[in-house]
Amino acid sequence: MSTDKNRKELLRKLSRNLMVSVPMMTVVAVAGFNASSGPGLGLIPSAEAAQGEAEGEAKGEAEGAAKGEGEAESRAEGEAEGRAEGEGEAEGKAEGEAEGEAEGEGVSAKLKKAVRRPEGYTPYQGNVADLRARGEKLFNDTSLSSNGLACATCHANGAGYNATFKNEYPHAVAMGKRDFGMDMVYLDEMVQICMVAPMAAEPLEWGSEELAALTEYSRVQQKEFIDKQ
Ligand code: HEC
């Protein structure tokens, strides 16, 4: 499934989803992320690859900007144009990333392992209301990532989720399968996947209060997501 078409479709879908509720920069960041996690490309497995990616990104941005020239001026002129612009930039970025990514080889075995529940794992136990409150703060905290994103950058108001989010955990999630080779993911594993992939950060400590808080808050998100359907 490592086709260019596939990747473009994903980009298009994501930029469409997000266009409505988040600023342009986010779309660029998300598109960039999605491109980098596209089939056959994978995520940043190491610092060296990260550098390669940064260079690729810079180049992609320049290309994207060139393509989007003129469109940038009409940024505020309605959703249709905003969308076209997003796609132009996204594609420029995808190209750049693909180049930068050539050095990396997908998600490393280490990261694949790191997002899976460890053996004998006991989640942190705490007061649910407290965990939710803490989780909401963390969800909006950009310092959790290495790229300036917060969970809420992508997921504010129920954005950025696919239909699988409605299912009871553990369940199959496209990103988990595609990039981490996981047939099923638990909710806390999904939090770790988003920490490691779109947030480009270290996974949270298993058994930590932070992980429990984000997991618990994600449950709140899930309920809102289901209720909205
Ligand atoms: C750059 C954008 C981005 C950021 C930032 C991000 N995510 Fe996600 N997240 C995604 C995408 C894309 C999906 C859909 C994955 C799929 O369905 O294959 C997703 C899916 C999810 C899901 C639902 C998966 C399912 O269908 O069951 C959860 C839960 C989630 N993210 C939690 C988080 C948390 C918690 C954070 C912060 C630590 C976070 N995300 C940060 C892009 C992001």
Automatic annotation (TrEMBL):
<feature type="region of interest" description="Disordered">
    <location>
        <begin position="48"/>
        <end position="109"/>
    </location>
</feature>
<dbReference type="GO" id="GO:0020037">
    <property type="term" value="F:heme binding"/>
</dbReference>
<dbReference type="InterPro" id="IPR009056">
    <property type="entry name" value="Cyt_c-like_dom"/>
</dbReference>
<protein>
    <recommendedName>
        <fullName>Cytochrome c domain-containing protein</fullName>
    </recommendedName>
</protein>
<dbReference type="GO" id="GO:0009055">
    <property type="term" value="F:electron transfer activity"/>
</dbReference>
<keyword id="KW-0349">Heme</keyword>
<dbReference type="InterPro" id="IPR036909">
    <property type="entry name" value="Cyt_c-like_dom_sf"/>
</dbReference>
<dbReference type="Pfam" id="PF21342">
    <property type="entry name" value="SoxA-TsdA_cyt-c"/>
</dbReference>
<keyword id="KW-0408">Iron</keyword>
<feature type="compositionally biased region" description="Basic and acidic residues">
    <location>
        <begin position="56"/>
        <end position="96"/>
    </location>
</feature>
<keyword id="KW-0479">Metal-binding</keyword>
<dbReference type="GO" id="GO:0046872">
    <property type="term" value="F:metal ion binding"/>
</dbReference>
<feature type="domain" description="Cytochrome c">
    <location>
        <begin position="130"/>
        <end position="222"/>
    </location>
</feature>
